């Protein structure tokens, strides 16, 4: 149950045709008048209005993690013991840099409606990218070639469908795409015994802990609570914090598997 359900039905037109509302200035709008905040899911009108007063911490977490993710990716690549590992770590590092880099740009900057619409699509598509990007080194390090192919086809196929879905249907209901992230994230749960056999129990514990942290983050994002300090550190920042902790846990699992 989210706050959206309690909004007045009067918003439903705006809900269905947000891009029209965004493209054409409202009748009577003064040229040069400040652009209203937009570019989000229309059902998130409250959130959009709040975006004018973004919590002050919005985006700083991603901006801070970006150089760490880049450095961490380089460390992994230098540890790689095969060409396949170099490729897998590069894919992983690139997906992490895209996630945190785009996230920081999107959340810190003030973009026009067009820029915001593009960055929001990239930001959401990157979530599918980081899921497949994280599975890539785990599969390459911990699975025999046959299983690698199956798992990587599954997660990259799912990620491609998911990214197309987010880019083409940016106004999909929040619960729907949140469930898609969680489903793809846990898609490889059946491979955990294989991960344990090849990587040991610590690797699996870190993979599962990361999965649980991502799921907790997705739940906070979906429910929009807890929202501790809306002006400084709101529910979105709680979500970011949980995803960064999840990323760190998975990074540790991959590092452990690589050494
Ligand atoms: Zn965000």
From TrEMBL:
Its chief place of residence is membrane
Alphabetically ordered keywords of this record: DNA-binding, Membrane, Transmembrane, Transmembrane helix
One GO MF term attached to the UniProt entry: DNA binding
The region called Disordered is annotated at 1-44
Q: Give TM regions.
A: 60-80, 86-106, 127-144, 150-168, 175-192, 198-223, 235-258
Presence of keyword Transmembrane helix:
yes
Q: Which domain of life is it from?
A: Bacteria
> What protein name does the entry list?
DNA-binding protein
Q: Where is the composition biased (Basic and acidic residues)?
A: 11-23
State the organism's lineage.
Bacteria, Bacillati, Actinomycetota, Actinomycetes, Kitasatosporales
* Subcellular location(s) per record: Membrane
